[in-house]
Amino acid sequence: MSTTQETKVEQEAIKRDFYHLIINGEKVKGSKDETFKTYNPATGELVAEVAKASQEDTEKAIAAAREAFDNGKWKKYPIGRRAQVLNRIAAIMRSRFNELVELEILDTGKSLQAAQGQVSQAIEDFEFYAGALVGHRGAVNNMPGQFHNYTEKEPVGVCAQITPWNYPLMMAAWKIAPAIAVGCSVIVKPASLTPLTTIILGEICLEAGVPAGVVNIVPGSGSEVGNYLVEHPKVDKVAFTGSTPIGKDIMAKASQTLKRVTLELGGKSPNLVFEDADIDAAVDGSLFGIFYNTGQSCEARSRLYVHEDIYDEFVSKFVEKTKKLKLGNPFDKETHVGAVIDQGQLDTVDGYVQSAIKEGAEILAGGKQAHPEGFEKGFWYEPTVIANVNHDMTVVKEEIFGPVVVIMKFKDEKEAIKLANDTEFGLGSAVWSKDGARATRVANQIQAGIVMINCPFSAFPGTPFGGYKQSGFGRELCIETLDLYTETKSIISYYGSRPINPLGV
Ligand code: NAD
Ligand code: MN
C-alpha cells in the first residue's frame, strides 16, 4: 500500500460525522432519509449520525447482491485473483490500523488493548481466508468401474450476515471474509449500537476491488432490516451472531424458505481450576477469561469452579487482582476494563447482581456501577466477583454479558465435569491443570465447542469457533467455515463404451 503524502490527502478520514449505507457499490443515504445516532459508551457523547436502511433499501441491497451473484464476475474470478483482493483488503486495513482502532473504541467504549487485538485479528482473518480459499476444493470419489464421480464446491449464493455489538469489526470480518472468499455476495446488518467500523470495512472492500453488489452494508433495526433479510426468498443463507432468543427466532423464520443457517449464540462458559494447576497462571488467565472486553464476550468464562483444596488461596489472589483492574480512559494503554455498551446493558448487569444478593450470594469484589474520573457520564460497572452461589440461581444459569463472574467449589474431577455441563449453553470452557492426561480427559467430556487448556485465548484465525447445545451451530474462523458458504455438487458420469439400458426395454 502506498503511504505517500499525496494518497493520504486524497483518503477520506475514517472518523466522520456521517456514515452512509453501502448498496451496489455506492455510498448512499437511506431512501427515507432517516438516520440514527451512535454514542460513545465511555462518555455518553455523540459519535456520529448513520444512514438508516429502510425495507426499500434492504430490498435494493438484496437485488444488488442477487445480480452480483447470478450474473456477476466475482465468483468466476481466478482463485488467485480473489485471494489477492482479500489480501488487499487486509493491507488497506493495516495501513489504517490506528484509525480503525480509534473508531472501534469510540463506538464501543472498549479498551485500547482490546480494540487493537480485535482489529489485528480482523485483518488476519482476511489474510487467512486469502490462503484458505486456494486449498478449498471438491473431491474425486471412488466409484465402481466405468463410473466417475467428482464434487464441486459452489458458493451458496446471497448471504445475510447479522452481527452483534460486542466485537463489531471482528464479527464483520469473521462473516464477510469466508463468504466472499468462496464467491458469495453478502448483505451485512451490523448492530445499531456499533455500526461504524463495519461500514468502513464495506468501503475498504470496494477500494480493494470487490465488485459492486458483492458486499452491501445496511445498518438498521433488527426487527425491520434483520427480519426482512431472514424472511426474504431471494436470500440463500443467514449467518447470525447474537443472543440465543433472537437466534431461535431467526432459525424458525429462515425455515420458511429453508435457508442455510449458522448461529453463533450466547454462552455461560465454565472455567475449571484443578488442585494441580499453576495457581498464578490460572488466576491471570481466569481474570482475562471473564473481564476481557468488559465481560461482553460470548465465550466469557463466567462460571469459575475451583477445587476445594486450593479454593481459599485462589479466591484471595483472584479477588485481589480483580480489585486492581483499572477502569477509565479507553485510549489509555494502562486501562484494563472498558465501558459497558449502554444504559440498558448496565441495568441488566446490575439487575443480575442484585438478584444474586437477594438470593443470598456474597459479593467479594465490585457489585455496583463504577464512576471513573472524567468519565462519569459513561456506562461503567465494577469488575464483580460473586461467591456463595448454587446452580439454582439465575446468575449461575443465565448469560449476564458484563464484568461479573460467579465462583464455586468442586471436590473431584467427576463433579467438576458434571457442574461444567449443567447448562443449556456450550460455547467455551477452560481447564487449568498441570496433569496433561487429566486435562485431556476433562476436555473430552466437556460439552462445548471450544476447550482452552492452560490457555486464556479462544480464537485465532484458523481455529474453529462455535457452540454446542443452545450456543448455536456452525463453526467460524476456520477452514470448515468455507463449507458452510458452499454447496457440494456431486457429478457422476458414465464412461463405458456400451450404452446403459437399465430398464431393459
Ligand atoms: P442481539 O441478539 O440482541 O442482536 C444481534 C443482532 O441481531 C443485531 O444486529 C440486531 O439488530 C439483530 N436482530 C435483533 N432482532 C432481530 C430479528 N428479529 N431478526 C433479525 N435480526 C435481529 O445480540 P446483541 O445484544 O447485539 O449481542 C449480544 C449477544 O451476542 C450475546 O448473547 C452474546 O453471547 C452473543 N454473541 C455470540 C457470539 C458467538 O460467536 N457465539 C459472539 C458474540 C456475541
Ligand atoms: Mn456506539
Quick recap of the structure?
The protein is globular. The protein is built from 16 helices and 21 strands. It folds into 2 domains: 18-265 and 467-490, Aldehyde Dehydrogenase, Chain A, domain 1 (3-Layer(aba) Sandwich), CATH 3.40.605.10; 270-453, Aldehyde Dehydrogenase, Chain A, domain 2, CATH 3.40.309.
Task: For this entry, give a set of tags.
single chain, 505 residues, alpha/beta, Aldehyde Dehydrogenase, Chain A, domain 1, Aldehyde Dehydrogenase, Chain A, domain 2, 2 domains, 7-stranded mixed beta sheet, 6-stranded mixed beta sheet, 38% helix, disordered N terminus, binds nicotinamide-adenine-dinucleotide, binds manganese (II) ion, Ald_DH/histidinol_DH, Aldehyde_DH_dom, EC 1.2.1.-
Order of strands, main sheet, comes to 15-16-17-14-13-18-19
**What characterizes the major β-sheet?**
7 strands, mixed
CATH architecture label of the largest domain: 3-Layer(aba) Sandwich
Count of individual beta strands: 21
Task: List low-confidence stretches.
Answer: 1-6
Relevant CATH superfamily of the largest domain: Aldehyde Dehydrogenase, Chain A, domain 1
Q: Provide the CATH topology of the largest domain.
A: Aldehyde Dehydrogenase, Chain A, domain 1
Structural class by SSE content:
alpha/beta
End-to-end separation: 68 Å
**β content, as a range?**
15-25%
Distinct small molecules bound, one entry per kind: nicotinamide-adenine-dinucleotide, manganese (II) ion
Compute the number of helices. 16
The CATH class assignment of the largest domain is: Alpha Beta
Quaternary structure state of the chains depicted: single chain
The tally of structural domains comes to 2
